[in-house]
Amino acid sequence: MAGTRFTPEREGELYAAVLGLLREVGYDALTMDAVAARAHTSKATLYRQWGSKAELVVRALRCEKPVFLDEVDTGSLRGDLDAVLEMTDDDRLEQDTALMRGLMQAASASTELHDALISQLINPETDGVDALLRRAVDRGEVAGDNPALRYVPHMMIGALAARLLIENRPVDRAFLRHYVHSVVFPALGV
């Protein structure tokens, strides 16, 4: 956001307004006019700073999720993934899962939103997971040629989607912890 006139605090307020509206009305019904009204700014300012609704929404999501997985290093893969799970709570997981479900549906119809989600949210997360896994390989915890390594992000995203679909229950930390220990670690040979 080169040349922004927003302070970090003001930017945080604006992102909170975006996410509040997104949770209330969903991506398709969210408008820049509504964001501008809630955030007490102009629509022109929003477009000047973020360029599009998709970019603004994804930046707000990224700001709300400041966990940098590549910085988590407890000395073991088990410790790293358990530490990552401890960084959230069940209410947040439920909100994030519902929000991402709606965004994934919207992204299937919007190339702009899909591309923004991939570049600013998904890729940084998968890069962080890759960093955790590379350290595990370097420590000898996981074989470098294990074919499951490339599918860990798929497994984790699948767990989030499948629980709701199969059990009609939101994801919580206990489920994710059990899933990681029962599915991900065995697939990696840990």
TrEMBL record:
Transferase recorded as keyword: no
Q: Which residues bind DNA?
A: 31-50
- Note the Pfam families from the entry: TetR_C_11, TetR_N
Which residue numbers delimit the HTH tetR-type domain?
Answer: 8-68
Q: Kindly list the organism's lineage.
A: Bacteria, Bacillati, Actinomycetota, Actinomycetes, Kitasatosporales
Question: What name has this protein been given in UniProt?
Answer: TetR/AcrR family transcriptional regulator
Look up the domain of life of the source: Bacteria
Going by the UniProt record, its keywords in alphabetical order are:
DNA-binding, Transcription, Transcription regulation
